[in-house]
Amino acid sequence: MNIRNFCIIAHIDHGKSTLADRLLEFTGTVSKREMKEQLLDQMDLERERGITIKLQPVRMSYNNYQLNLIDTPGHVDFTYEVSRSLAAVEGAVLLVDATQGIQAQTLTNLRLAQDQNLVIIPVINKIDLPSAEIEKVTEEMINVIGVKKEDIILASGKDGAGVEELLEAICKRIPAPEFKNSTRMRALIFDSVFNSYKGVIAYVRVKDGQIKKGDKIKFMATNKEIEALEVGYFRPQYVPTESLGEGEIGYIVTGLKSVRDAKVGDTIIKTKNNKQETINNEEIMPLPGFKYIKPYVFASIFMVDGEPSELRDALEKLQLNDASLTFEPENSPALGLGYRCGFLGLLHLDIIRERLEREYDLDLLVTTPSVSYEVLQNNSEVLSINNPSELPDPAVIAEIAEPYVSLEIITPSSYLGAVMELCTDSRGLYKDMKYLEETTVVITYEIPLAEIITEFYDNLKRVTSGYASYNYDFIGNKPGDLVKLDILIAGDIVDPLSVIIPRQKAGYIGRPVLENLRKVIPKQMFEISLQAAIGSKIIARESIPALRKDVTAKLYGGDYSRKRKLLEKQKAGKKRMKKMGRVDIPQEAFFTMLKK
Question: In this structure, are 57 and 159 located in the same domain?
């Protein structure tokens, strides 16, 4: 059979899922009765937000060709999903919006595809829009990507223009999988999900041999041996079949209880009589997998109302379908027992938070996001910390290193000055600049990750009227003059509000934070002091005055000493409450740290 494996890659909102709908429709994979917009986006959150979060495979048939498509996310937080998809295919359809042209994530995804030596099919999408600039975008693609004009396909995911031409190009340009007619079996796991009825389902690309239902298989990384309970392909629902052959993309129902036993990037092989297969008495070597995904952004999650065990159970269930989510217990004197969670970015954090609240009905409090730091101590020991409260005493610290990223911004040249000023204010180090064409420029900076995980995106959109886009890649840790800023409420340090910041920014970060906290923390019957401190040095202070209850309201005359006695009693009560009173910190208090 003629097999073609490919994925669709693009910047966010350039129309990947909509074009995939037209491909499914044209090939008759999905009937018109079953058809709905963004069919491959199966999560409620994906459909509501209009973005793809999880990769989704599907098999189509066209002119005696078996076409295996993987629809991928476009947001920078989910680049890991894209890289896994690319490892399972031989070609990539690169979409560019006819109204926006090449954007930052377009270039990133293109480089990922080129690293895998994939055949690229360039497509200009949304040509039906009145604001489409087809000639301009064509020139961009020729100059930047290096494609020929005749190779570019013009298409519209909305009205289906160019879909047949695209399908023909996929069949002709993308090479068939390399067939070795091997008797051994090797399959690469490019994703795994947990199903409450079937257990772990491994999404695989069969590289060698054939796997059948009932075969004894082994996961090479974890040495887990099981029986393949079911094999099949995607349409896009699970469709069971007798076997998956060389070059095909499909799934294997394993019956395992944890995704950790079916790691993404692992190789599945067959076993005979509980012994690993060999070829000419040589052991089968695992396929090249994926690099371990390391969380970049960390935040603590606490329960506002309910038991911490409910939160743990919910996080464990989410982790079954999202291996990039990490968490560990954390105990805060102010907020109780919670979990310190690791994410790939702020959007990833927001998606997890919303899924916890919606799918598991939890009332949550999420603290200020931070990044992971490396602390070199005077005794040459290196600590890796992802929570500011873990920072050791300044007296034993020789150096603090923070993560840096290579930031690539694509912007109209008219906003160049404003973008460069924003990057400089964010401690960015200028590296490179080049023009895509006369009015569009690509600027590259090296910048601390901590500077871009909070307000950077909003500020970039503000100074460029929404026209700029950016992408970043982690490049390593660099030392800096960093200190821990503690926030004290009523004299107590609130660890979840602590942040690690550059020393030179401490003064003008501390005071605005206190001013914002003053607005969101409700008044109590006693005065609340708010302080920002570096070590034992207080650098800013604000106070929330006490609520004044008129205790003399019911007096109707008599000696003044009666009134004074009540006021003295109230004063003593407020003093006692100030010592013993507890301040409930609302979620808004943590959002103020994002607006520092």
Answer: yes
Sign of the dihedral defined by the CA atoms of residues 291, 406, 322, 115, in that order:
negative
CA gap 558, 564 in Å, rounded: 12
What's the CA gap between 570 and 147, in Å, rounded? 80
| 10 & 158 share domain | yes
| Distance in angstroms (rounded) separating the CA atoms of residues 271 and 437 | 56
| Residue 590 pLDDT greater than 70, yes or no | no
3-state SS assignment for residue 532: strand
| Cα–Cα dist 288/79, whole Å | 18
**449 shares its domain with 468:** yes
Q: Strand, helix or coil at 521? A: coil
Distances in Å between the Cα of 79 and the Cα atoms of 116, 336, 386 are: 14, 34, 22
Interval 367-387: pLDDT, tens: 878 888 999 988 889 988 888
Beta-strand relationship, 363-366 and 230-234: unpaired
Tokens representing residue 579 in the block: 């010592």
Q: Taking a C-beta distance cutoff of 8 angstroms, is the pair 162, 127 a contact?
A: yes
Q: What is the DSSP string of 253-269?
A: E---S-GGGS-TT-EEE
CB 567 within 8 A of CB 554: no
| Residue 288 belongs to a domain | no
pLDDT in tens, 524-537: 777 788 888 988 88
What are the tens digits of pLDDT across the range 458-481?
Answer: 899 899 988 888 888 889 899 988
Evaluate whether residue 134 is within a structural domain. yes
Question: 3-state SS of 273-332?
Answer: CCEECEECCEECCCCCCCCCCCCCEEEEEEEEECCHHHHHHHHHHHHHHCCCCEEEEEEE
pLDDT exceeds 60 at position 212: yes
Distance, CA of 251 to chain centre: 24
Are 70 and 87 spatial neighbours (Cβ–Cβ below 8 Å)? no
Cα separation, 3 vs 473, whole angstroms: 33
Which of 366, 392, 407 is the last residue before a domain boundary? 366
Q: What is the DSSP string of 470-493?
A: EEEEEEEEEEE-EEEEEEEETTEE
Share of the chain above pLDDT 90, in %: 24
| Confidence (pLDDT) at 584 | 65
Quick one: pLDDT at residue 389? 81
Q: What order of strands is seen across the sheet that includes strand 56-62? A: 56-62, 65-71, 2-9, 91-97, 119-125, 153-154
Q: Does one domain contain both 120 and 253?
A: no
Whether the per-residue pLDDT at 36 is higher than 70: the answer is no
pLDDT band at 405 (very low <50, low <70, confident <90, very high): very high
Three-state SS for 375?
strand
Residues 337 and 276 in one domain: no
Quote the CA–CA distance of 498 and 370 in Å, as a whole number. Answer: 10
Domain count, the chain: 5
Q: Which two tokens stand for residue 492?
A: 């107590």
